[in-house]
């Protein structure tokens, strides 16, 4: 069934219909992201100012935030393909994420916070690839960039609303982080209920399960292997959003009071560009748009350290949101046409796990450099690393066949 996507802001430029399941999954992600981003928006301040973590300790926490999904992403994709039940696996991930919010309530130190963050990220890792399979099998493959763009636009709307809700709650009750965590948990439960009752089970086109030998065979697919390597190389040079925002805070480009709204500004740019860049990737090549996104990320780094005040913060957030719009949904859309139907979830999970692992390493490394030197030096270091990564990845990824040809 196809529905009109009138609910998406006009700026996204969608004029055609998309499958109903894509819109429903987008609404589930919207609600779930309201829950998650409420916590994410206050986490840097809560960890560094309330719990007193050092930049290195926060880097390790951010590394856990990214890395906890690596193995679980692989398991989620593998079992979704093996069981032919992507809805069941994705639903389990949403439920684990909701349960993790309960652990935030008795937080009294870094250990409990790490457990809650790890459990939440494990739930995200478990659900991501099976959910993306439900999107990838919803309609023609030559429109996957658009479908993922619609989903990511709705997802970005939740990412936008989450920090706003957190900001409002803390404005009503300054310092009452428990209130933020309770509301976050309620929103997560609502997302689980919507997913269970309104997302249909995927009907597999093939019979029988997959084996580990089948998974290993994915690496023999040339285009997929190049995409995987390029994504992994680029992700290692990625600075977490929280760190970039802390750099802006240390540079006095923003104040503590407005810190949660930095996430909102990034999400606004992401929301505005997710669908247009998805359509551009369908037309001109998803690999090209994906690598261009990391060029935008490099611009975000340079803006954070070269331009002072509100102007620097604005440029940084604009480039950061554009980077997410050019990469987040485009990467699974680029990977899906390269994969056999029976291994789509597994292949997507392998790529996403590589990205998550690279970001985890990058988070710990960035925290270590910042602890040894200072925030600006750490950003300069990662800007240089990202420039080298781009020079390495672009030739690698452009040798793959054009995605428009592979999707047909």
UniProtKB/TrEMBL annotation:
InterPro entries: MFS, MFS_dom, MFS_trans_sf
Origin: domain of life: Bacteria
Localization per record: Cell membrane
Main location, first listed in the record: membrane
A GO CC term assigned to this protein in UniProt: plasma membrane
Pfam families reported for this sequence: MFS_1
Membrane association type: Multi-pass membrane protein
All residue ranges annotated as the Major facilitator superfamily (MFS) profile domain in the record: 21-401
Record key words, sorted: Membrane, Transmembrane, Transmembrane helix
Spans through the membrane: 21-43, 63-80, 179-196, 227-246, 258-277, 289-311, 379-398
Record-level Gene Ontology MF annotations: transmembrane transporter activity
Keyword Membrane part of the UniProt annotation: yes
CDD domains: MFS_MJ1317_like
Protein name: MFS transporter
Natural source organism: Actinomadura litoris
């Amino acid at each position: 069934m196809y529905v009109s996507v009138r609910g998406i802001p006009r700026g996204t430029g969608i004029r055609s219909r998309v499958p109903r399941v894509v819109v429903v999954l987008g609404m589930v992600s919207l609600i779930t992201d309201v829950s998650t981003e409420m916590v994410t928006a206050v986490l840097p301040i809560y960890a560094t100012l309330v719990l007193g973590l050092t930049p290195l300790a926060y880097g390790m926490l951010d590394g856990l935030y990214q890395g906890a999904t690596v193995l679980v992403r692989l398991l989620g994709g593998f079992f979704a393909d093996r069981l032919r039940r992507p809805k069941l696996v994705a639903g389990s991930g949403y439920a684990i994420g909701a349960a993790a919010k309960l652990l935030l309530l008795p937080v009294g130190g870094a250990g409990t916070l790490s457990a809650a963050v790890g459990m939440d990220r494990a739930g995200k890792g478990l659900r991501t690839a099976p959910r993306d399979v439900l999107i990838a099998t919803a309609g023609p493959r030559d429109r996957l960039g658009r479908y993922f763009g619609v989903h990511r636009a709705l997802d970005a709307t939740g990412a936008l609303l989450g920090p706003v809700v957190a900001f409002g709650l803390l404005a009503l009750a300054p310092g009452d982080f428990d209130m933020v965590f309770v509301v976050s948990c309620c929103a997560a439960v609502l997302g689980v209920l919507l997913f269970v009752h309104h997302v249909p089970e995927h009907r597999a086109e093939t019979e029988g399960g997959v084996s580990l030998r089948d998974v290993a065979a994915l690496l023999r697919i040339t285009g997929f292997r190049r995409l995987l390597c390029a994504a992994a190389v680029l992700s290692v040079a990625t600075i977490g959003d929280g760190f970039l925002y802390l750099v802006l805070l240390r540079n006095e480009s923003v104040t503590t009071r407005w810190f949660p709204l930095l996430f909102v500004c990034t999400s606004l740019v992401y929301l505005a560009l997710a669908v247009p860049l998805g359509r551009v990737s369908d037309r001109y090549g998803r690999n090209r748009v994906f690598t261009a996104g990391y060029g935008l990320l490099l611009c975000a780094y340079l803006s954070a350290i070269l331009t002072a005040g509100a102007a620097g913060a604005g440029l940084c957030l604009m480039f950061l949101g554009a980077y997410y719009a050019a990469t987040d949904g485009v990467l699974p859309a680029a990977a899906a046409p390269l994969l056999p139907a029976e291994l789509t979830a597994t292949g997507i999970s392998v790529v996403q796990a590589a990205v998550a692992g690279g970001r985890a390493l990058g988070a710990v490394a960035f925290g270590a450099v910042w602890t040894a030197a200072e925030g600006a030096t750490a950003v300069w270091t990662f800007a240089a690393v990202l420039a080298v990564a781009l020079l390495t990845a672009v030739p690698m990824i452009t040798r793959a066949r054009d995605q428009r040809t592979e999707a047909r």
